[in-house]
Amino acid sequence: MAGIFGNTERAVYEIRYSVWKNVAVFILCLGLDLAALLVLLSPSHRDWPSVAGALFFGAGAALFGFRAFGRRIKIYADSQGIQDFRNRYGAIAWSEIGSVTTRTVKGITYLTLYFRNSAKWLQRSPSWTQWIVTKTKMKMSATISLQNTDVDERQFVRFVDARVAVASANG
User: Fold this and answer.
1) For residue 6, is pLDDT > 50?
2) Contact present, 114 and 140 (Cβ < 8 Å)
3) Of 6, 13, 18, 99, which sits most exposed with the smallest number of CB within 10 A?
4) Residues 100, 97: Cα–Cα separation, whole Å
5) Do 84 and 25 reside in the same domain of the chain?
6) 31-55: per-residue pLDDT in tens?
7) What is each CA distance from 133 to 94, 96, 117, 136, 149, in whole angstroms?
8) Domain holding 94: CATH number?
9) Same-domain pairing of 166 and 91
């Protein structure tokens, strides 16, 4: 394994949500929620936009607070395969992946894993995904979002590319 990885690359990734990124958004949402609540307390501004703002930013604060302090593993990758605990595919062996594409949209990196045997993985997909894939005859894939995670995205993409390349060369 030392021949495949350099000194800065790891052989196992346990990716969690980033504490600092989520705490920053949590504080921002909490501050905006408090501002909306202060507007609601004034007798002249009790209208539905203030209520909607308070509910929206309160929900955002709850979501990002949960993400900031929830330290469960979201994505696990090692020499055997990869698993995104946020979807229903389970563990995916590197030999099951035909190719990988990476896309960055507005600063968020997405990895798309294209399966070799689409029929096997299509059964594990939500019904709407099954319908779209069968109607459009597109390749079956799993997309992994690296938004607000604690990983060096470029290093992780290199790790995934290397693992898929090794698995393709071996079988």
Assistant:
1) no
2) yes
3) 6
4) 8
5) no
6) 888 888 887 777 776 677 777 878 8
7) 22, 18, 13, 5, 29
8) 2.30.29
9) yes
